[in-house]
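User: My instructor asked us to take a sequence, write out its structure as tokens, and then describe one feature of it. I'm not sure where to start. Here is the sequence I was given:
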Amino acid sequence: MKELNLRYRGLDKTTDVLSFSQMENVTQQSAISNQQSILGDIVINLHKAKRQAVERDLTFNEELSWLLIHGILHLTGYDHEKSRYLKNKMERKEKELFNVINPP
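Assistant: Let's start with the prediction itself. The structure tokens for your sequence are:
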């Protein structure tokens, strides 16, 4: 994971999830009209997910759900690194989707 993060993001550290879009050069409209359904790839660091689950008081499966949601949101255009507003927007959407599949 550290190697992927360095290669694709220039960050020499590990991370919990990476998303690789397959639609970067495709507009949303052309993707819809071509019925393209592959948004991209998501890589989840299972070792980090296991540790984070304990830290966040979640089950391992709940943590995997959270990371998958996070990755999918990145693939659909959300970006928490551009501004505080966009970070808050993405976090609200993560919580909303997480609660749909893991009701409180």
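For the description part of your assignment, you could build on this observation: The mean pLDDT is 90. Try explaining in your own words what that tells you about the chain.
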